[in-house]
Specification:
The protein has helices spanning 42-45, 56-84; strands at residues 10-17, 22-27, 31-34. The chain is of the alpha+beta class. The chain has two domains: 1-51, Rhinovirus 14, subunit 4 (Irregular); 52-85. Strands 2-1-3 form a three-stranded mixed beta sheet, with no helix packed on it. It is elongated, with a radius of gyration of 24 Å.
């Protein structure tokens, strides 16, 4: 194994969840912040809960609107070029 190419490993990495749960694990980072853990994840709790991390639905809707606008602009440009001929 080559020396001095591996990151530093922390045996006591403190993990903090958005729900307030804290636990210790090993990682190359000394502190982790997570949004979902085994205490609040729907799979482990058995309760249905919608998890929308960082507005993924909103980002998707914005991309859809931008795509429609781009397609309309491209069609208008194509139509303008066709009418010039």
């Amino acid at each position: 194994m080559k020396q001095a190419i591996h990151p530093q490993y922390f045996d006591n990495c403190q993990v903090t969840c958005a729900c307030g749960n804290k636990f210790t694990t090993g990682s190359t980072l000394d502190h982790l912040l997570v949004e979902v853990c085994n205490k609040c994840h729907p799979f482990f709790t058995g309760q249905q809960k919608f998890v929308d991390i960082k507005g993924r639905i909103d980002k998707f809707k914005e991309k859809q609107v931008a795509g429609v606008a781009y397609a309309a602009k491209k069609a208008a440009t194509k139509k303008a070029k066709k009418s010039e001929k």
